[in-house]
Q: What sequence folds into this?
């Protein structure tokens, strides 16, 4: 047993080394700022705070309360809403709270389809199914990688959902909320937007603004394009004709606690407060560069012969691009070859894949957000695309390409767009 600390230390050291040497391109990840990271190891991590500030079930929370109040205030300011709850401990946990608080089992919900790029929490085998709901998926426009507006209007009017959920994990383009809003208001649906992937782009004012388009509730995780700790958030500005605003906010509060969590990981809440403050200052510039980089990467890959989705729409309006790599042998092996070359990606279902093929899908999903956080711009995206070509098309030895990736990455290992910019990204704290 005395060898366990040494073993864990060595695994963590090698993990840090992998990301220091590599290109982190998973669309659902990011890297914390030094200012936020230091709160991840404060005494908050050892404490409990059930309930709301000033209404706790434990003593010793008077300073925790002040942090939570400040964190909520920053969230409301960033997203321009009257209600924020920063207690959820993940995006899925935030989604579970909405489901628990806002809709009863056997009722009807409309959702995006997992095979079209939706998150698993919206699926029958995820949180929606666990809640016991009748779910109906929006028809999908394959060419434009978005919801089919005309067919979805028919679905909404036919099924009359109590809750209409939008939001994707392969989130290339804004959701047509405005185009669907007349039908949603007609059936008095509560409109819910899962903004987990694009939360930082929305906060930076560079994607759609769901609340100004008619959304009642937005959930999200706080560690993707919003570069914070792994945590969740619920935001609300009620507009639905089916429920009074005060009632909606009470139901959301109940959905969080006692609904789906007890304590809410106070150290990551402190780190989130720092992230929200940073995003108020740096978020616009960061979000703009994230999208520029994603478009540049899509174009550079396309020019090298990759089948990047939605060329006719300039590939993306977010941080994400999607490639169909089935003609190159499929995603399952390619993501392994890429990781051998220090390029960290993930395989992903595309709309024409069957959900049972999740471990051997056609697609690779890429995100530009963490590379941007490390200071890369459009010219670097061209170099990144060349690494992909050498591995996936030219079939070079991934270890040989990896040596070049490591050399390229040496100049991009500090965190930008934050308090304390320029601090090493993967060596902020030495492993004991």
A:
């Amino acid at each position: 047993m005395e060898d366990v600390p040494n073993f864990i230390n060595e695994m963590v050291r090698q993990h840090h080394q992998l990301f220091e040497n590599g290109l982190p391109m998973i669309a659902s990840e990011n890297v914390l700022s030094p200012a936020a990271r230091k709160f991840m190891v404060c005494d908050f991590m050892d404490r409990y705070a059930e309930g709301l500030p000033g209404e706790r079930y434990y003593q010793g929370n008077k300073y925790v309360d002040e942090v939570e109040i400040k964190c909520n205030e920053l969230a409301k300011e960033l997203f321009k809403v009257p209600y924020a709850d920063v207690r959820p401990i993940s995006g899925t946990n935030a989604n579970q709270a909405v489901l628990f608080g806002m809709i009863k089992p056997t009722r009807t919900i409309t959702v995006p389809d997992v095979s079209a790029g939706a998150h698993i929490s919206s699926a029958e085998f995820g949180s929606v199914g666990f809640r016991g709901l009748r779910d109906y998926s929006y028809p999908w426009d394959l060419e434009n990688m978005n919801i089919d507006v005309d067919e979805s209007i028919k679905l909404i009017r036919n099924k009359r959902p109590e809750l209409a959920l939008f939001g994707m994990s392969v989130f290339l383009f804004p959701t047509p909320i405005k185009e669907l809003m007349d039908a949603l208001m007609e059936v008095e649906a509560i409109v819910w937007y899962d903004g987990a992937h694009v939360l930082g782009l929305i906060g930076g004012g560079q994607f759609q603004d769901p609340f100004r388009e008619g959304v009642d509730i937005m959930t999200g995780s706080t560690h993707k394009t919003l570069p914070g700790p792994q945590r969740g958030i619920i935001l609300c500005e009620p507009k639905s004709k089916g429920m009074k605003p005060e009632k909606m906010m009470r139901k959301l509060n109940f959905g969080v606690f006692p609904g789906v969590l007890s304590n809410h990981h106070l150290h990551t809440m402190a780190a989130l407060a720092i992230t929200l403050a940073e995003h108020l200052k740096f978020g616009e510039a960061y979000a703009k560069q994230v999208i520029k980089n994603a478009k540049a990467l899509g174009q550079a890959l396309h020019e090298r012969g990759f089948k990047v989705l939605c060329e006719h729409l300039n590939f993306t309006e977010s941080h994400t691009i999607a490639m169909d790599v089935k003609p190159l042998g499929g995603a399952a092996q390619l993501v392994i070859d890429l990781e051998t070359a220090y390029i960290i990606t993930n395989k992903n279902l595309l709309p024409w894949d069957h959900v049972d093929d999740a471990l051997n899908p056609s697609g690779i999903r890429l995100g530009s957000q963490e590379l941007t956080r490390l200071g890369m711009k459009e010219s670097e995206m061209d170099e990144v695309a060349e690494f992909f070509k050498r591995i996936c098309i030219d079939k070079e030895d991934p270890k040989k390409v990896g040596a070049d990736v490591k050399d390229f990455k040496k100049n991009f290992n500090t965190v930008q767009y934050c308090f304390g910019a320029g601090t090493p990204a993967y060596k902020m704290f030495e492993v004991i």
